[in-house]
Amino acid sequence: MSIIFDNKQKSFILQAKNSTYIIKILRDKYLSHIYWGGKIANPAVDQIENSTSRCSFSANPDEDTSFSLDSVPSEYPAYGNTDLRMPAYQIQLENGTRITDLTYDSYEIIKGKPKLKGLPAVYTDNDREADTLFITLADPLIGLKVILSYTVFSDYDAVIRSARLVNNGNSRLNVLRALSMSVDFDHSDFDMLSLSGSWA
User: Fold this and answer.
1) Alpha-carbon distance 36 to 43, whole Å?
2) In what order do the strands lie in the sheet with 30-38?
3) I need a labelling partner for 178 at 20 to 30 A (CA). Which of 76, 143, 161, 190 fits?
4) What is the pLDDT of residues 4-15, one digit of tens each?
5) Domains in the chain, CATH or no CATH each
């Protein structure tokens, strides 16, 4: 299987053909992006994890003053919950508030890649070609759930991402921003290749 949950390291390890993608659950509730790069056969997540100390101006989500989401590479960052960077999603409640507190709820790993209803998407011919991880984040106060989907193909170096927002609450939610993914990198020395045209 190309996706496993390592309970000891509290980490999801996604193995593509020649690359590895790692997500760690911090403090039993926050998802942190740990690694995306060349394949690591048996990753020691604690040694890979880039531990950054809290800046003096960063707020804390709980009573531990040494921890701030502003200095953690978040897997799906929220607006207004001590992370001052660009959020991956933002919603507005009927009362005008835009602050949410999504935390880790559950996960599921399945064979294959389910279709995205009503949307064009990459697909598989049979379930042996890929594995898919669903991670559910929840804000029980407002009834919002976000299901993050990761598909890893056995023969390719690709991680297919999507996010689905589900309103299980009693009030309407206005979606202001919803990205398929957000990735923090520890440097900015990249080249970007882009094709011009109407597709963008």
Assistant:
1) 12
2) 3-6, 11-15, 19-26, 30-38
3) 190
4) 999 999 999 999
5) 3-52+67-178 (2.70.98.60)
